[in-house]
Structures are given as C-alpha cells and as structure tokens.
Amino acid sequence: MGLRMDNIHAPTVASGPNSTQTNGDGREKLSLPELIAQKDRVWSELSALGSVLDSHGVNMSTPLTTFDGYPRPDLDIAQIRTTRARIIPLKNDYKDLMARIEKAMHEHWENAAAAPPQPPAPAAVSTSQPAAQTAEATRNSRVALEAPFAKVNSVVASSPAATAGLKPGDKITRFGDVDWMNHDKLSKVAQTVQQNEGVAITVKIIRPAATGAAEQRLEVQLMPRHNWGGRGMLGCHLLPL
Question: Are 165 and 218 in a shared domain?
C-alpha cells in the first residue's frame, strides 16, 4: 500500500557544489561578456532540468501524491523533487543575472552617448581584443535581454496560433510589449490578447534545435480572434518558465 507522505512536495536539496558559484557581490566584478556567458550556462542547465521534468510529464507544480496523500506510483518522486530543488535557485540566479546584464547595458549606452566621437582608426590597424570583446557584448546584449518567459505546450490545428506558425516547444521571448520582466505570471499576455482582437501581435520565439543543429530565433505575427472553431482567441496553451 505504501507510506503516506505529508511533505512529499517539499523539494529535496541536493548536496555538493552548485554550477553557479559566483553570485551576490562576486558578480559585481564580472564584465558584460562574462555576465552573458554565465547567463547562458545557467539557462543551459535550466533547459536540461526542464527536460527531466518533461520526461516525467510534470512541471514545478504537478502534484506528486494521490488524492489520499500517498506517493504516485507512476512517478520517480526522488528525481522530481531533486530536480525541482535545483531549478528554484537557478531561476533566482537567472533573474539576478538578467537584471545585472540590463543594468550593465544601460551603463554601456549611457557611457557611449557621453563619450566624445572617436576618429576612425586606420584600416591597417587591427581591432584589439578588448574592443572585440566589447563589440561582441554589444551584438549579444539585445539577444541576452530577450530571455524566454513562456513555453508553447500545445497548439490546436487551424487555430490562430497554428496559422502564425507556433509549434509545441517554442519558447516565447516577447509577446507584443510583454517580456520576461513584466509578464506578471502571463497575466499581461492575456491582457494583450484581449486588447488586440483582430490585430496582429509580433511574437518572438526560440525554437528548440533539431539534433546537431542550432536553436532558431524567429518572429511570427499572431492575430487573436474568436470564431476560429475552438476555445479562446489563440488556440494554444502557454506555460510560464
């Protein structure tokens, strides 16, 4: 019959070192390229852990017990709890890194605007390594600030979402004016949909890579509407990340 477990939903904190040792004051010393690189590492680990939960058919809030309080026999409870426990601090790390990247980018543009114009360098002079790193940080900054905040869980055939080209697994980085900083648990997405019936909304997504390929960053036009033959105005189910 099994043992009843009252605290089964409490995450199990794994022992041992974390992959993101630099935090708090230590991050103040990191350059913008270093912050972006650390953000990418954290996101990669979050994606891998999310895949673990997906493989069990659960998310961060799926109940792990039966209606009468016993562990669900169809789930690997220990692995799910350990995975959830790792995801929680990583999400906090990710939010902290994104806030620091945004602050660093604002400072970068303010300094660039205040600096006097520089004469063009001779064509024969090669770009120094620090200058190349700054240029790379500038190119990556806008992409870094567009962090995914929702995932497309399912798409109904012939729906507005399907017509726009959304697919299950797509991760949304921007939905109109809504992004990772202001989505408010996706409530702003719902508000944007209600305010734009019959109007195309620009949606930016990251599409997972096929085996051996790089992930794709795409932009689609999604027009919310009623009377398309299904429920809601989109025809897709979104999950917060």
Answer: yes
- Domain C-terminal end among 144, 167, 198: 144
DSSP state of 65: B
Digit-coded pLDDT (tens) for 45-100: 888 898 899 899 999 889 999 888 899 999 999 999 999 999 999 989 988 888 88
* Same domain, residue pair 139 and 28: yes
Clarify whether residues 169 and 92 are in a common domain: no
User: What is the pTM for the complete model shown?
Assistant: 0.49
Q: How many domains does the chain have?
A: 2
How far is it, in rounded angstroms, from Cα 179 to Cα 204?
Answer: 10
- Count the Cβ atoms, other than its own, within 10 Å of residue 46: 18
What lies within 8 Å, CB to CB, of 101 at 6+ separation is: 32, 35, 36, 39, 141, 144, 145
